[in-house]
Amino acid sequence: MAYKIFIDGEVGTTGLQIRERLDARADIELLSLSEDRRKDVNARADAAREADVSILCLPDAAAKDLVAALGPDEGRLIDASTAHRVDPDWVFGFPEMAEGQRQALSSARRVSNPGCWSTCAIALIRPMVEAGLMAPDAAHAVSGVSGYTGGGKAMIAEFETGEAEGSFLYGVSQAHKHLPEMTKYGKLTVAPVFVPSVGAYAQGMAVAVHLGEMGPDGMTAAKDALSAAYEGQQFVSVVDASVHEPRVLPQRLNGTNRLELSVHGNPATGAVTLIAVLDNLGKGASGAAVQNMNLMLGAEESAGLV
User: Fold this and answer.
1) Where residue 130 falls among pLDDT bands split at 50, 70, 90?
2) C-alpha distances in angstroms, 302 versus 29, 258, 298?
3) Is the pLDDT of residue 210 over 80?
4) Residue ranges matching CATH 3.40.50.720 in the chain
5) Torsions phi, psi of 75, nearest 5?
């Protein structure tokens, strides 16, 4: 018997990629609404009640509207928006983040899918804080580059119509929507100083966390902490710095649900930088949603994923 899955917002970028990952699976039956009912919150709520799991690929307000239309015990939801990322009643959907996270996801009724930027930052920062290599009360520097698909429908349109040209920095006012979950799940008490950028290409992401001077053994200590945190994980791996030399390519993992972490720096000065690379539409969005869905259903965690 197939699991019933409802993708609320299936015609958006993330929704389409989730559907692509599920279409070929014999164990999945996709529930869909006709075009004239896609914005009807009651029709959406009925579909969510019928489904074994519903995945919300919606703006924050529309995600909140659906949740409000359901009782607390009605439906099992994965929300890909930012609406519930730091809500204590929702389980954060990063299975590799901590011991017991998979078990919490398996039994959860409400799961908040991480954002692409926050997945990278948390994956790097949390093990450093837990190992005592980063102070939780310091304003650590985080930067990176993403393909323009990470900016949603409006930004995609800007690039594809030629309105936007070249690359640019943004979020410099330090109010980026991913900062709350970076802080909470990175075990920080002070938000990082985060300056992201958008590249003139479709998808792929590289994020850097700058640790500064850590002494001659800093790189080794950082790599050891990351390796211990993600030992045995299928989709998160720690790779040698040489993989990314002489250039870090953000598109390296496109089309996959993989996240690669590496440690870089100058042993002579002790300066250390951590790097994370993923597909912002894969492990940073739709791949993560499918991985979480698999856990919630009790299916093989890697089903439909590479």
Assistant:
1) very high
2) 18, 11, 11
3) yes
4) 3-114+284-297
5) 75, 155
Instruction: Determine the distance from the C-alpha atom of residue 229 to the mean position of all C-alpha atoms in its chain, rounded to a whole number.
Output: 18
Going across the sheet that includes 168-169, the strands are 168-169, 193-198, 141-146, 205-213, 271-278, 259-266, 236-238
Collapsed DSSP state (helix, strand, coil) of residue 247: coil
Q: Just list the catalytic residues.
A: 116
91, two tokens: 């389980």
Q: In angstroms, rounded to a whole number, what is the distance separating the alpha carbons of residues 206 and 83?
A: 24
- Give the residue ranges of DSSP H helices in the chain: 13-22, 41-50, 60-69, 101-107, 116-130, 152-160, 179-185, 218-229, 287-297
The Cα–Cα gap between 272 and 287 comes to 30
Report the candidate in 56, 179, 152 with the shortest Cα–Cα distance to residue 110: 56
Cβ neighbours of residue 1 closer than 8 Å, sequence gap 6 or more: none
Per DSSP, the three-state class of 250 is coil
Q: What whole-number distance in Å separates Cα of residue 271 and Cα of residue 267?
A: 7
Residue range(s) in the chain whose domain bears CATH number 3.30.360.10: 116-280
Taking the CB of residue 107, how many other CB atoms lie within 10 A of it?
Answer: 11
Q: How far is CA 197 from CA 72, 176, 218, 265, in A?
A: 38, 12, 27, 22
Q: Tokens 């030399």 map to which residue?
A: 245
The CATH class given to the 3-114+284-297 domain equals alpha beta
Total-model pTM: 0.95
For residue 301, give the amino acid letter: E
Q: In Å, what is the CA distance from 291 to each residue of 101, 288, 306? A: 13, 5, 11
Question: What number of residues does the chain have?
Answer: 306
Residue showing tokens 């920095």:
169
CB 96, CB 233: distance < 8 Å: yes
Q: Are 155 and 164 in contact (CB under 8 A)?
A: yes
Q: Of 201, 287, 292, which Cα lies nearest the Cα of 17?
A: 287
Residue 208 pLDDT greater than 90, yes or no:
yes
Fold classification of 116-280 (topology level) = Dihydrodipicolinate Reductase; domain 2 (3.30.360)
